[in-house]
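hey so i finally got around to running the thing on that chain from the lab meeting. sorry it took forever, my laptop kept dying and i had to restart like 3 times. anyway pasting the input first so we r on the same page abt which one it is
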Amino acid sequence: MEKKHTHMAAAAVALLWVLIPAASALRSEGRALMSLKASFSNVANVLLDWNAVSASGNIIRGGGAEEEHCSWRGVICDNLTFAVVSLNLSNLNLGGEISPAIGDLKSLQYIDLKGNHLTGQIPDEIGDCTSLKYLDLSGNSLYGDIPFSISKLKRIEELILKNNQLTGPIPSTLSQIPNLKTLDLAMNQLTGDIPRLIYWNEVLQYLGLRGNSLTGTLSPDMCQLTGLWYFDLRGNNISGTIPDSIGNCTSFEILDISYNQITGEIPFNIGFLQVATLSLQGNLLTGKIPEVVGLMQALAVLDLSENELSGTIPPILGNLSYTGKLYLHGNKFTGRIPPELGNMSKLSYLQVNDNELEGTIPSELGKLEELFELNLANNNLEGPIPHNISSCTALNQFNVHGNCLNGSIPLEFQKLQSLTYLNFSSNNFTGLIPVELGRIINLDTLDLSDNDFSGRIPDSLGDLEHLLELNLSKNSISGPIPAEFGNLRSIQIIDMSHNMISGLIPEELGQLQNIDSL
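ok and heres what got predicted. didnt touch it at all, straight out
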């Protein structure tokens, strides 16, 4: 019997040796959480259940269990050890800073503090959370360098620091994180080159670097990212040319290198990409669009706008049957708009404005049943508007400003009930303003200025109750201002200057409460 008691005593002592450190660790985590709370500035109404802990680690309010903190808002603990494994305090407007005590939460696997208006620097102690798999500090006002200690987080898979005010270089040691799948540093003030070692991470799937001040060139090593599907460098200061090896980046689904200082021609090998989005907008690219781009069948978005590209628009682009957005505006393209573009059955946005295109508007564009925006402005197009454009019944915006188009406005345009923006300005249109325009009831902008329209202003324009802007200036319009204009309750701007309008201003216009300019 005595021997049995001896064994029981020994077992009890052994259990104490296990429980005492565990209890001590729990008290330490409670204190760490309270230190975090103390470093935030707006906790009064959002962390009410985070109760105070005494210097000895005992809870003063809300019960005395060691694992009390496991029930606090945003805290998740391990079911067996009661160690904190997840901390989610996102979008609580906490303010303040991140306490270095975060590093005392050794078992943390998940931290989400996004959208809290936090300031200060990311504490070096974050690198002590060695179990961490997910870290999101985005949407705050954190500043300073990205701490090198983050590279100690060997288990981390997602590192999201976007939308802060972080400065300095991207730490090259981030390449030493073996399981990193998502690296999002977008919308900060980071400088310097992209560390080349980053490109040798075969696990990385998402690389978001847009909206920084990164310099250097596009490395030929970028295609070593064999697992990467999202590569976004938009809005930096990257220079040099697009590497000829770009076609080897076969895992890429989204490639956005827009708004940089990239020069040279678009390499032929780009046609080997299997991307859904290719955005080269806002660079200094020259030369022609490679014909092979028309074979990139996976493309949903092709944006080559705001460069210095020249030559003609390749008719083979009409083969892009899955492309929904085609942006070619702001270049130096010449020649005609290819009729083959009418074969792009999924096209919803077509912008070829601000080029040097000539010829007529191809009637084949009328086959684009899903077209939402058609912008042909500021070219040298001539001839009439094809009547079958009215078959594009999803059309919301139609802009042919600044061309040499002539003829009259097709009466069939009254079918375009989804139109909100209609701009025929600065052309050579003639004839009467159609009464039928008053039936496009969702219009908010109607600009017919700087043409040669004649006759009276149709009363039916007064039915456009959503109209915000009406510009009929610089025409040969005569007769009175319709009293029905008093029904344009939303109107803000009416310009009828430089016409031959006669009569008095109708008193009904005095009912227009929102008008800024008449």
